[in-house]
Amino acid sequence: MSPRPLCFVVMPFGQKPDPAGGPDINFDRIYHDAIAAGIEDAGMEPVRADEERTGGISRKAMLERLILSDYVVADLTTANANVFYQLGVRHTVRPAATLTIFAEHQPIPLDLNHSHSMSYVLGENNAFGKSEATSLRESVTAGLTGLQQRTNEDVAVDSPLFTLLGISEPGDIARLKTDDFRGKVQQNEQNKQDLTKIRTRGKDRSTRAEAAGEIAALRAKRFTPLDAVETATAVDLMLTYRALEDWDGMISVFGEMQDALQRQILVREQLGFAYNRRAGKNKDPADRAEALRILTEVEDQQGPSSETCGLIGRIHKDNWSETLASGDAIVAAGHLRKAVDAYTRGYMSDLRDAYPGINAVTLLDIKGDEGSLKTKASLLPVVRFAVEQRLKGSKPDYWDHATMLELAILDNEPEVAGEHLADALAVVRETWEPGTTANNLRMIQRARKERGADEPWLLSIIEALDAKSL
User: Residue 167 and residue 174: Cα distance in Å, rounded?
Assistant: First the structure.
């Protein structure tokens, strides 16, 4: 049986701003629920670019996919410069077999608005539910099936360049080159699938030890030497160790990466994360100092970002918590100020990312002095708005509701907090989730109690979260 045609997908990752001004668009959901499924329904094998996940796919790997893949689907919704560049490369070397799509409320350049461009519909507030997914899935299948039929009949030319030049045949592409490419892509896809399975098993603590054995065997078999492995797979390996909470594994993977990959922002952020988490386990201050050094260098290089500053804030927060527990209140206060500053820098760099914002507001409440409470009062509504926008734009998860719960508590709204508590407990996925929230609220409760506040309603919320975490 002949292998299925490869269909390379060029599109954004994660949630991205809507160029038309609406809520963020969840492109991961669009890919998994519609595009990938539609490609498979057309009898093809979907392959997605990994450059945003990894901080930079190699140019060689990207060009191979654009030139040698049988078919390409390109989502132009965000008018992303990288997507247009990649589409230009494809149109330069392939006369046909490229399907361009875009959300219908977002106009695309006239040069690309030709017969093979296809629009799709997003729901209210850019939600992408079952009906939208079904419609796009069917359209992608129909579009690719039509392209395949026209290509087989030698009548398909969808490249504006080939149309202009009046030619229908690409330059000769060596068969051995194509076969070698197919083998590498299929191996890479198998690696991603295997690592995904290991991460899934690692979420359950009862099977985590087994998952650790599986990743060790897989690494020895396929990822040695690591600098010969594709960039995306090397980063995926590092993130799989993170899912298993194997901080030594994350650090060792970094040490075997190519120099160019080690310089990537995402990889260095994950390395700093690993050192800080290992410090929490082994209580070695040298690890925490190394984490802070790595992440400070990243911030100095690229400026403040919600991710980098959020990680720096976590380091200072951990230092504050541990120093406070040791009884050194003066040094602990210094760490607390640094944590607030880092989280605030991170949130101000991207007001859509509520994570550093909720941490800043919480720690300002814990500080409790007049200036901190005044800053908290001005920042809290902005953070709440960010979470509310996320609730509108995607299917809410536990952390969305837990953040709204924490904001209601920080704003002293017992009844509203009770509503968000019920919403959060209804969507708990892992028992550690409510336990983490309970620990955050316990810090708030202790700080307020030291200031003379008696809040039995807050204690009852903490107890409900603790009960769910057992």
Answer: 20
